[in-house]
Amino acid sequence: MLSFLSRHSSLLLMLSAIFGFIFPTISAVVFPFLPYILFFLMLFTLLGMKQHELINLLGQLNIWFYACFHAIALSVIACSISGLLGASSSMLLAISAVTATGSLFATPAIARSVGLDALKAMAMTIASTLMMPAVLYINFLLFQDSNFSLDMQSYIQRLMIFILGPMCLSALCYRLIPHNLLHRTHAKLSQVTIVLVFTFPFGLVGEFRKMFDRSFTHGLSFLLIGIALCILFFLAAFLFYRRQGLDPALLAAITAANRNVLLTYTVAGAYLGPEYMALMGAIQLPTYSLPLLVKALSKYCSPPSTNDMQNKKNSLQNHQ
User: Fold this and answer.
1) Which UniProt keywords are present, listed alphabetically (predicted)?
2) Mean pLDDT for the stretch of residues 85-92
3) CA–CA separation, 100 vs 79, rounded Å?
4) Cα 285 from Cα 223, distance rounded (Å)
């Protein structure tokens, strides 16, 4: 069963968001458990990675350059476009919070599910998350009044729980558990990680459904904004990194479009306003539709294999 779910994870991620929208009551029940699920998702993902390689990646400038692009450059682009289109100050605040947000902790599991480098995705996720408080603070200065303060203590606690905690536990597992046994069990753990990811779109979209119940037009407008943001993040990163190759471009694109809006809400929810809560739910469906898009782009943009070219050549010869 786990193998089936992992094999069809790209489609099931999108369906999870749809089912959460259809069943908002059940979605609301799942929502409070998401932080705990987040911890185990990080732990299971890290267990399949060599810690020293992850730390080495975090020491590379290109990872931190990506983090600056993820948070700073995309904040400037998204907020500038929104301002030119006449977005209200409260909507600009919500959009600026989304653009400051680090990548989903589920990104490595999603990257693995579409055949991309999960270790590099993890390094990019951690770097963009560590960039978040500074960029969020600056965005608040620009779009909020001066009477605010970020809950930095809460944010640091969450960094320790969701990043340092799983890293330390996984390092301990590598030290205490024989590597052969750990590698044998990791194949199953990697299937569990993608199953845990299903809970996020399902649990976060329930509040968005309530907006649709109050006003269909208002809900649809937020959905369109969420789709536009995801497309902007994805295309900007894909085009910027395309010269490095297809896989790096797709990895940057899916990492840029995946946003850990739940963590941002936990840290600064009191200052984000109601628009952010609605946008947090609206962005789920386009975000979790991206794995299907990545698979399609990878297939479309990849050069034909030797076997494909030979088969095509044989077919032409037979036709002649």
Assistant:
1) Membrane, Transmembrane, Transmembrane helix
2) 89
3) 11
4) 9
